Each structure stands twice: as structure tokens, then as C-alpha cells.
Amino acid sequence: MLRISVTDRCNLRCGYCMPAGGVTFQSKDELLTPKDLARISGFAHRLGVRHFKITGGEPTVRGDLVEIIQRIRAIGPSDLSMTSNGLQMPRLAGALKEAGIDRVTLSVDSLRPDRYRDITGGGRFDLFERGLEATAEAFGTVKLNVVVMRGVNDDEVSDFAGLARDRDWTVRFIEFMPLGSSVLADGEADRYLVTADEVTSSIEAVHGPLEPVEASADPGVGPARLLEMPGGRGRIGLIHAMSRPFCETCNRLRLTSSGVLRSCLFDGGEVDLMPILRKESADSEDAGDRSLLDAFARCTAMKPEVHAARGGRAMSSIGG
Ligand code: SAM
Ligand code: SF4
Predict the structure, then answer these.
(1) 197 vs 175: CA distance, rounded Å
(2) Are the CB atoms for 165 and 171 separated by under 8 Å?
């Protein structure tokens, strides 16, 4: 699976994601173009990568997003999905579906408008709700990503789980990861971590025992452990990256919006593809292929056995 960040910009400022000291965004000429993105994705597809995820920053702030999706769809992936904060989905959901997106995950960490605004640095929950409605309508279903943080939103876990009881949606609870210099990734970041086991207990205390589901029942569920409530319509996903790292089964590579191929969300090592792409216009495509093959092989070899406790790069620049 290749996760492709198409921008480091965002229309929100979630405290666990954006760097604390303000952000210096990449300039437009440092960004991969739709053609670059198609070249790298097409090469990855030839190497056997079949699942592609579009992410950011916030992918919908890129004006040429529909063209990017069309170009990647044309490569023939078996699964093309996107993660978004949803605010632009009333305008874009239909066009993205038509361009070839199979599934959308929306991120939301509170169902209470005041708290949603505080967590996202000013976001409007009513706009999120409209985006959610538009996404569910265009795609038939939706996945929700919820980062659970102690003392911030852990009292809403069972409310979120209730959405997966009443609707055919997947609600995925993500363990908080201390990455980069985000506001919450300070020296005491560990205090925010609510483990997947704690999340399971909170849900079971309100909704009753959860039962495991075959991951194949839910395409693109990724590294999440999947559960369901007896009699519920949807599914609960648990992403236990901190309490039980799943590095030995991780097959992900990540591409940043400036063309850096990363072996791991944490600090596994990375290879810059931009010099290869820029040199390619002078060289033959064969020479470019050889350089890309070498870059993908080096990056894959750098995947760590187990990730570190902290990561150096902010999530907003890697894309989750
Ligand atoms: N802007 C889009 C969104 O919010 O869905 C896509 C990019 S965002 C970086 C991808 C996912 O990473 C989101 O679900 C977000 O909640 C999650 N995320 C960001 N920072 C995180 C952190 N420190 N720990 C765990 N998850 C994080
Ligand atoms: Fe933006 Fe997504 Fe990061 Fe929030 S989590 S600041 S919406 S990129």
C-alpha cells in the first residue's frame, strides 16, 4: 500500500497534527505535480502495489485533486481511497467518486461542536456534518477516524461507537502518536495515550461485548483490528500503533507531497524521489526506471523491525 500525501496544507489546525511553532508550508514548485504523482504511482503499481490512499495535510485544499485522482485511477489500482477532514465534501464528494475514489475516511475527534472547534483550531462541526452527509450519500458508506486522547475526548468513545451500531459505517479508534513538534507531542505526550484495550473496555461497558470480525469483511481496513457489536450494523476498528505495534505485518510506504518516500510513519528512513523525477526529463525513461527501482528497494529495506517511541516529522507533512 502506498499512502500519498498531496499537500502539507490544511484548512484546520488539529493540535496533535500541526507543528506547535507555526507551519512553513512548501511552495508550489516544491510539490509533486499530477504528472509526477502518476509517474510514481504507475511505477509502484508495476512493482506490485495495488492499494493507494490519498491524504495530506488536507487533500481537498489542492485545486487539481480531481485530476490527480483521475490519473491514479487510470493506472488500474484495485483500491483507491482518500482520508479527509470532510469540510469540502459537500462540494467535492460527487466529483471524487466519479474521478475514481472507491472509499473515503473522514476524521472527527468530537461530536460536540465546542470541543470539535477547540480540537481542530476553529473548525465548524455543522460544516463537518454536511461533509459527512455528502460523503455517505455519494459513497454509500463511510469510515470515521477518531484519535482518542485522555482528558480531551475519551469520554465520547461510546458515543462514537453508537454510530457504528446504528449505521453501516466503520468507526476506527486511533491511538494518539507523539509525532514531530505538534502541540500535544511535548515531553508529557504519554499522558494523552488511551490504549486500544481501554477503548474496548469503554465501549463494552455501554454497548455490551464486542465480537471479532474477519478483516476481509471490510476492504481497506488496513492495520485496524476489527470488531462488531452483536446486532449492530457497522464495525469498530482499533489502531493500536503504540500499545501493540504491527510493524512486522506493515506493507506501507508513504510519499510526502514534496516527493520523499518514507519507510515508516515514525523514523525509519526516507529517500528523496524529486531529484530522480527532475533528472528524468533529461535522461531516458529506462534510466529513470532504474533509479526509481533502486529508491523503492532502498526505502523498503529501511523499514524498521519495530518503530521508535516518537517520530520526528509532524503528521501534517506525512499524512498519517
Ligand atoms: N486532513 C486529513 C484528515 O484529517 O483526515 C488527512 C491527513 S491526517 C494527517 C490523517 C489522519 O492522521 C487523521 O485521521 C488524523 O486524525 C490522524 N492523525 C494526525 N495526527 C495524529 C497523531 N499525532 N496521532 C494519531 N493520529 C493522528
Ligand atoms: Fe488538518 Fe487532518 Fe492534520 Fe487535522 S489531522 S490538522 S484536518 S491534516
Answers:
(1) 10
(2) no
Give distance in angstroms: CA of 18 to centre of ligand 2. 7
Q: Is the CB of 8 under 6 A from ligand 2?
A: no
Q: Give one DSSP letter per residue of 142-175, joined into a string.
A: -EEEEEEBTTTTGGGHHHHHHHHHHSS-EEEEEE
Is the CB of 40 within 6 Å of ligand 2? no
Domain count along the chain: 1
The segment with the largest mean pLDDT, out of 24-33, 69-78, 223-232, 273-282, is 69-78
Determine the Cα–Cα distance for residues 128 and 115; give it in Å rounded to an integer. Answer: 13
Does ligand 1 have an atom closer than 6 angstroms to the CB of 319? yes
Atom 8 of ligand 2, residue of closest alpha carbon: 57
Residue pLDDT, tens place only, 175-216: 998 876 666 656 667 789 999 999 999 999 999 999 999 876
pLDDT (tens digit per residue) in 237-261: 999 888 888 788 888 899 999 999 9
Phi/psi of residue 318, nearest 5 degrees: -105, -40
- Cβ atoms of 120 and 13 within 8 Å: the answer is yes
Residue nearest to atom 1 of ligand 1 (CA): 58
Burial of 66 (0-12, 13-18, 19+ CB in 10 A): middle
Ligand 2 lined by 147 (C-beta under 6 Å): no
> For residue 13, which atom of ligand 2 is closest to its CA?
6
Q: Indicate which CATH number applies to the domain containing 217.
A: 3.20.20.70
Q: What is the pTM of this model?
A: 0.94
> 129: buried, middle or exposed (CB in 10 Å: 19+, 13-18, 0-12)?
middle
Q: Whose CA is nearest to atom 10 of ligand 1?
A: 320
* CA of 17, closest atom in ligand 1: 20
Q: Which domain holds residue 11?
A: 2-317
